[in-house]
Amino acid sequence: MADAPQLQMEWFASSDADTPITFDPADIGDTLFDDDGSVIYTGSLLGDAWQFSWTTRARNDIDNTWLDGTLSIINLSDNQQDFSLSTTMEPLASFTGAATMDLSASLGLTNLQWFGDAMVETTINDPLVTGSIDGTNVAGIFGNPYSLQALGGFGSAADSDATAQGTSMTPSEAIAMLTSFSLSGGDMLNISFALNVTSIPAPGAAALLSMAFILSTGRRRRTPTRGGAE
């Protein structure tokens, strides 16, 4: 049986001394239990200089666990701000071996003003989106330095990226998605992301599956055609 997903989010805005804010999304907004065993969290936060909303789906299965969703961030100030959000799922259902991490995301940048351009870019040395296992960064996309620009009043721009990374780690505690970026004043960034961690079959199991396929193929090839000549 899969464990019920338990999430923790940490939100930071560089203009707001009251951040970072750490919270359980089940305590803010709405929670929906889906038929496939996943849990969907929706909610929003509002500060004097920013607005943040999320729809995040989580599923925590033995040997396969994932997070996906959409984040919407609006910089309500006139100045560029740095923002970051981490979404952590813990504890994990038991993994039996090393895992792969598949990470993908798409960005939608919108200038919410009649003038100027909108800009989103990476900060310091981090990718814009990072996936981690047990506190260790495993995969990153939109690597530093990265920038996306939407030209002109109410202009928009979009981009997408993905990666798949094998790891020698056996997930035991948590997986997490982190996004950190700098956003121009008065503009909006939407981030859709998917983070999937899957157990790698043990070499012995993979070999057995391969051998079973070869034997099955060989048997089919040796079967004589009905009505054929002896």
Given helix and strand content, the structural type is mainly beta
Largest sheet: 8 strands, antiparallel
Return the average pLDDT rounded to an integer. 89
Strand content: over 45%
N/C terminus separation: 55 Å
Shape: globular
Domain count: the total is 1
Secondary-structure element pattern, one letter each:
EEEEEEEEEEEEEEEH
Please compute the radius of gyration using only Cα atoms: 22 Å
Q: Portion of residues in helices?
A: under 10%
The total beta strand count reads 15
Low-confidence stretches: 204-217, 225-230
| Annotation field: number of helices | 1
So what's the oligomer here? single chain
Q: Which properties best describe this structure?
A:
single chain, 230 residues, mainly beta, eight-stranded antiparallel beta sheet, seven-stranded antiparallel beta sheet, 15 strands, 9% helix, globular
Tell me the layout of helices and strands.
Blueprint: E1 7-13, E2 21-23, E3 30-33, E4 39-46, E5 50-61, E6 64-75, E7 81-89, E8 99-111, E9 118-121, E10 129-133, E11 136-141, E12 147-150, E13 156-167, E14 175-183, E15 187-199, H1 203-222
Antiparallel strand pairs: 1-2, 1-7, 3-4, 4-5, 5-6, 6-15, 7-14, 8-13, 8-15, 9-12, 9-14, 10-11, 10-14
